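Lab notebook, bench 4. We co-purified these components, and the gel suggests they stay together. Before we commit to crystallization screens, I want a quick structural picture of the whole thing.
Request: model the full complex, all chains together.
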Amino acid sequence: MKSLSRKLAYGIFAVAALVTGASAQAANERFVLISHAPDSDSWWNTIKTAIKEAGQHLSVTVEYRNPPTGDLADMARIVEQAAASNPNGIIVTIADFDVLQAPITNAVKKGIPVVTINSGTQEQSARLGALMHVGQPEYDAGFGAGKKAKDAGVKSFLCVNHYITNPASVERCKGFADALGTPLGNQMIDSGMDPSEVENKVAAYLKANPNTGGILTLGPNSAHPTIRALEKSQQAGKLFFGTFDLSPEIAKAITDGTINFAIDQQPYLQGYLPVMALTLNARYGVFPGNNINSGPGFVTKQNVALVRKLAGEYR
Amino acid sequence: MSVGDMSDRSITPSPAAPKDDERLRRVGRVSRLLNRPELGAVSGLALVFVFFAFAAGSSGMFAADGVMNWLTVSAQLGILAIGASLLMIAGEFDLSIGSMIGFAGMMIAIPAVFFGVPIWLCLIFAFAGALLVGFINGYIVIRTGLPSFIVSLAFLFILRGLTLALSILFSNRTIVGGLREKAAGDWLAPVFGGRIGLGFFQKLAEWKIIGAYPDGSPVVPGLPMVVVWWVVLALIGGWVLTRTRVGNWIFASGGDAKAARNVGVPVNGVKIGLFMVTAFCATVYAACQVMEFGSAAADRGLLKEFEAIIAAVIGGSLLTGGYGSVIGACFGALIFGVVQQGIFFAGWNSDWFRVFLGVMLLIAVVFNNYIRRKVTGER
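Here is the predicted assembly.
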């Protein structure tokens, strides 16, 4: 048993040495990007690509952190913790203003430059003391999508919400409903994240409400199973179908005519630009004077070819 | 197991007993210390600290705000682990505590925000509601004779579903915010969301023992109440378990419920009471979180039931009941918190986060078991 404990100790020191060695090599600026997304959300892969490439191009280290289950209180702890590790900058989503207010303002107070991305508004970003916000206003994007649907003559709709506990996703459905002039109520369903569950819930809803005119999905996690549900019930292309965000499957569905449009908030920009801005700030003290709207951009049949080969990695 | 453990504790001379009672076996102070069930967890913790001193020593993990970060995470989990370990020692599980956190949070937030009820009344309401849920949970387990695993699994879904359904019903939202303003000036709110030792931490910053913001205020403005609750509940739980008759009942219920009933232990009462304790602990967690962040969310506490059980197991509680310790569970929670946050500090890729977490926990538990066996001579 003595040899076991000795081996264990050697092993631990070996790993520890490896780790300290690895972190000693990266002597350049270190930034931490903190998202609210649970591990299963594939949309964030584009951001991960962006920060990886930005890190390589600019010779900086960018760490990606997220609460594994998507619990925003856990996310607040990660922000506190990132601040405690004294990085050269923090990039963070404002998933919920109340929860993140104290940790983010404390990081700012500590003198750490903060850029907010993705969720949240530009006003919230300014109130937190962040240097700028890179994102897409959620309610407005949902409202814009709703206007397109209204022009197409849609009167009733289904909003497939795969992340119902995040207020930003509810905002999108709400904007869509307001543009159509219908109350939200039962038209928003809590689909969960599991693809087969989403598919069956959508199929069940459409069966129970055959007069549904349009569908809004909030991202690949709800869009992919919805596409399958429509294909199985042979309704693909017959319903007005808008979605948020892009993926290879969504791009293909736009080409096929199953999906009318996708709202692209261009996540690559949300990952790349803050790293670039913070690096320039750390090195030369220069910084853009305004917030940056990375979206919304509508991807339709007309421009999808351009987007398609990049989907899932850069778009 | 339980019998051995009870005799272990009876040999500890009580102050009232005559000093040279020949029935008492003499046990040295050191070996008595080494025989405690929490020893393994303490060694595991030491191992984890050594590891992170190397892996993340220069990252700010051991600066004041870094320490407060993993301490807060550990304290939250520790509060749950105290309830979970007591119930586990009594031979039952409660898988609904994670959902109970979200549910209790909403019981505080919805009345406060949508019905204008004062915060102190909301807190009392939430605790009363949680104790009721705990009672129902325990009562169903006792009356049906079903494994608590199944019953509390049902409650895991019922409570999570109710939390979502009710928050949508009342507020059309899944996060109910705006409690910070309501809690201002409330007499009970600071008991959960406040901080203590403000002056002390200010002094520490002035003496440059801990870091300060550029404006001179300390990076850690005080000890969060969640940590205070953790310590207080640990002391009470540890005292009840090891020094009172109820503690013996808990060990006996989990060791052999039938034998315990035969000697007059109120097994049903003990078990139902402990289900209420776990619900109470989950509500303390929820209240601290809601008061700190000023909002309740329907997905709070996801998967925390498993983390609480992990902490209790790392701390030396047996999954089969009848053996374990509250203080050990607290050390288990500390190990979990240090590892979980330490991985972030060490700067590891978050794609690998859970792999590291799992491996570190496995090493901690194996090490902890190894030390305990070696010291207690258990096979």
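Confidence is low (pLDDT under 50) at residues 19-26 of chain A. Worth comparing against the SEC data before the next meeting. Chain A touches chain B through 52 residues (CB under 8 Å).
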